[in-house]
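Title: Prediction job returns without error message
Component: structure pipeline
Severity: low
Priority: P3
Assignee: unassigned

Description:
Job completed but the reporter wants confirmation the result is attached to the right record. Sequence as submitted:
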Amino acid sequence: MMSSRESLLYELQWRGLLYQQTEGLATHLAKAPVSAYCGFDPTAPSLHVGNLVPVMLLVHMARAGHQAIALVGGGTAMIGDPSGKSDERPLSSRDEIERNAAAIHAQLQRLFAAAETKGVTLRNNADWLLDVKVIDFMRDVGKHFSINYMLAKDSVQSRLETGISYTEFSYMLLQAYDFLRLHRDEGVTVQVGGSDQWGNITAGMELVRRAVGAEAHVLTAPLITTSSGKKFGKTESGAVWLDRKLTSPYRFYQFWINAEDANVGKYLRMFTFRPRAEI
């Protein structure tokens, strides 16, 4: 009989939460409990229902006996992630990002409590990124990445025609540094996230391997769309937020109750812990 750690990837696959994984991840997870993290971007004052996908990844990791870390990007939000964006993001103020980060930390605490998930650690990468010295960063992180490697990433490739600033071009390295820092501080060896983050996440994995020679892995979930191809969590009136001030409880309820019949089974697998037979 498989242990909960050995069956984790099978469970994630059945629930539609597994899209990509690095070679050797299954063996790595089965050997002993590991520490895994996922990043959340505080460029808005609330998470939205699309963010529930990576939250569920962390919850399943914790339920399988692994240590889970939810990282709010209070430092990386000062730069802006170019992934999935056709134009440069407007830069938010430090005060705004700090308010957003605090609000998202509180939301994550409530989500993990509601899922009865213990042992989840909350961190903010502003704690280390805001104090990084540029020369040290270039020597310790930049030397491990060639320009060719960075140009090959989808988040950069998609912006070459419209243009990308050095600020956003450097985002990949800052996120990679998070993985290295959490590896050194918390023993993190796995990063999880959405499939649109594959390029950024694998850069972090490579940094851990190159800088300290340690084993590191990546696991991503698919980006969710409805059966009609519309982005999950988007309605005619905009995103469905987890903050009741931005999306009323009634509208939040209506979003789920109005789901197309063809998606009900998928959503039950992804966003609940109901057993297979019941679903």
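Comment from assignee: result matches the submitted record. Residues 76 and 118 are 27 Å apart (CA to CA).
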